[in-house]
């Protein structure tokens, strides 16, 4: 092909582009999960902004649970364990990091587990056998002063749901 881009050059350009577009988790040993909240309850500040009351929330949160990349907060290359992150759909940063992955240490020996324990703004626990999760958000109540005005939105909650393995 005179003056044009040869087939060999096109492949050389397209293959890295295609690979970079694939999800990072596809190159990881660990599985990724999509998790949907089914029920959510907690506490919110009343209209006066001074009293807390219990409330059921609309269960709409969706999470992607996946291995963290090298450049993401919570990744620890020295532990020998694949760290995970819990990302709420539409967000760039993990709401919780799972630094031990699906493992724990017993008497200095690494053991595998079906549990993923994660902490951050949210606490998130996933059982890979039952594909159920529980997550808590505890910011809000402990940040306010008794009798002081509380901002709407800092509402402690607990939510449960189920996941699908990707």
Topology:
Blueprint: H1 7-21, E1 33-45, E2 52-57, E3 62-67, E4 84-88, E5 96-98, E6 103-106, E7 109-112, E8 115-120, E9 122-127, E10 132-137, E11 157-165
Antiparallel strand pairs: 1-2, 1-3, 1-11, 3-4, 4-5, 5-8, 6-7, 8-9, 9-10, 10-11
Describe the structure.
The chain is mostly beta strands. 9% of the residues lie in helices and 41% in strands. It contains one helix and eleven strands; from the N terminus they run αβββββββββββ. The strands form two sheets. An eight-stranded antiparallel β-barrel has the order 1-3-4-5-8-9-10-11. A two-stranded antiparallel ribbon has the order 6-7. Residues 9-28 have low confidence and may be disordered.
Quickly list its features:
single chain; 166 residues; mainly beta; 8-stranded antiparallel beta barrel; two-stranded antiparallel sheet; 11 strands
Q: What gap, in angstroms, lies between the N and C termini?
A: 43 Å
Q: Tell me the β content.
A: 35-45%
In percent, how helical is the residue content? under 10%
The shape, in one word, is: elongated
Largest sheet: 8 strands, antiparallel, barrel
Please, what is the average pLDDT?
77
Element-by-element helix/strand order? HEEEEEEEEEEE
Low-confidence runs: 9-28
How many helices in DSSP terms?
A: 1
Strand order of the largest sheet: 1-3-4-5-8-9-10-11
Helix vs. strand class: mainly beta
Number of strands: 11
Over all CA atoms, what is the radius of gyration? 21 Å
